[in-house]
Amino acid sequence: MQYIIDAAGKKLGRVASEAAVLLMGKDSPGFARNRVAEVSVRITNVSKLSIDEKKYAGKIYTRFSGYPGGLKKETAGHVAATKGAGELMRRAIRRMLPANRLRDRMLKNLIMTA
After folding, report:
1. Percent of the chain with pLDDT over 90
2. Most buried one in 45, 49, 64, 86, CB count within 10 A?
3. What is the reported pLDDT for 112?
4. DSSP assignments along 44-105, one per residue
5. Of 109, 111, 92, the residue nearest 5 (C-alpha)
């Protein structure tokens, strides 16, 4: 089954939470936590999202390599400027999915268009 979400004029978190629920399959009667739902979610008009300037400056993504001095930080504005608004959406959805072996397989069912 394929779902289409129009992101034009909507907030980032609202669209991301809707997509995360659909990717997990929680809306279907055959929901099972240990299986990837056979759905694909297409998000259109990602570049027309309503994102506040405060979010661009204040939201900081961090990752750690495990080595001394390996903490890397980047703001949401920098991510949007280098990789586009679709990357912000992908990261938001990724963090709303359960952190298990199925997360990457669920994310493969996500399609975003500008």
Report:
1. 96
2. 49
3. 93
4. E-GGG-B--HHHHHH-EEEEE-SSTT-EEEEEHHHHHHHH-HHHHHHHHHHHHS-SSTTHHH
5. 111
- Which residues, including other chains, have CB under 8 Å from residue 13's CB and lie 6 or more apart? 92
Number of CB atoms found within 10 A of residue 37's CB:
20
pLDDT digits (tens, 9 = 90+) for 86-100: 999 999 999 999 999
Calpha distance 86→90 (Å, rounded)? 6
Report the candidate in 60, 54, 85 with the shortest Cα–Cα distance to residue 74: 60
Residue 114 confidence (pLDDT) above 90 = no
Q: Residues 11, 78, 75, 24: is their CA dihedral positive or negative?
A: positive
What would the pLDDT profile of 24-78 be if each residue is shown by its tens digit?
999 999 999 999 999 999 999 999 999 999 999 999 999 999 999 999 999 999 9
Residue with tokens 């990717």: 23
Both tokens of 69, joined, read 């001095």
